[in-house]
Amino acid sequence: MSAIAQHINRLKGLGTATIHEAQGQKGALDSGLKPLDPTLRMAGPAVTVDIRPGDNLMIHYALTKTKPGDVLVVDAKGFLEAGPWGDILTLAALELGLAGLVVNGSVRDGNAIIEMGFPVFCRGLSIKGTGKNQPGRVNVPVHFGGAQIHAGDIIIGDRDGLVVVSPDEVESVINKSIEREAKEEAMRVALKEGQTMVQLLKLGETLERFGLR
């Protein structure tokens, strides 16, 4: 297994909230992007797709540019009244070995996608189909959800949400995430021994400033 594959597996095992905190509270996508199946986790390098609302031509093209383990990140401009992705594209993605999908918009065939076990994060569901007529772009920077995503950025998703990590920062983020997990485990032990969160976080002085004793 390559080093980057090992890093991706490690990030997948870490919580998105932990990763977000570990990299200085950056890289989070907004909470409107929800997993279809919150029991699934996802991590992989992004293949970015910039499409026109109501058209999925460039998604079909983008699938010819992917590698196993990639995450397709589609900016559908937040358009909710059409689903540019459904069960057939999910099957195509599974056959290609993709790790998941993020859509700044809607998808359809939600139950079928869940049954197929493919991680999908989106803003909603729509039964309406799309055209295949409009141009777009693949592997260009896309900006939505409060984050900019470049092709090759590592995107991680779980029940809590989505976070983006630059490939140049992966090792540092993993190390800081592990340190954070260790500190939280020590905190759990201390709580079970009777200490309070006020004590552990040294909040006494702050509370006293507000007259809270």
Question: What proportion of the residues form beta strands (DSSP E)?
Answer: 15-25%
Number of helices: 8
Q: How much helicity do the residues have?
A: 25-40%
Top-tier CATH class of the largest domain: Alpha Beta
In the CATH hierarchy, the architecture of the largest domain is 3-Layer(bba) Sandwich
Principal-axis shape equals: elongated
Structural class: alpha/beta
Biggest beta-sheet profile = 9 strands, mixed
CATH topology (level 3) name of the largest domain: Glucose Oxidase, domain 1
Number-wise, the strands total: 11
CATH superfamily of the largest domain: Ribonuclease E inhibitor RraA/RraA-like
Structure description:
Helix content is 35%, strand content 24%. It is an alpha/beta fold and 213 residues long. The model has no long low-confidence stretch (mean pLDDT 96). It folds into 2 domains: 3-167, Glucose Oxidase, domain 1 (3-Layer(bba) Sandwich); 174-209, no CATH class. The chain has helices spanning 3-13, 16-22, 57-62, 87-96, 110-116, 170-192, 197-200, 204-209, and strands at residues 34-35, 42-50, 71-79, 100-107, 120-122, 124-125, 137-138, 142-144, 147-149, 154-158, 161-165. Strands 1, 2, 3, 4, 5, 6, 7, 10 and 11 form a 9-stranded mixed beta sheet that branches. It has a two-stranded antiparallel ribbon with strand order 8-9. The protein is built from 8 helices and 11 strands. Keywords: Lyase. Its EC number is 4.1.3.17. Pfam families: RraA-like. This is 4-carboxy-4-hydroxy-2-oxoadipate aldolase. InterPro entries: RraA/RraA-like, RraA/RraA-like_sf.
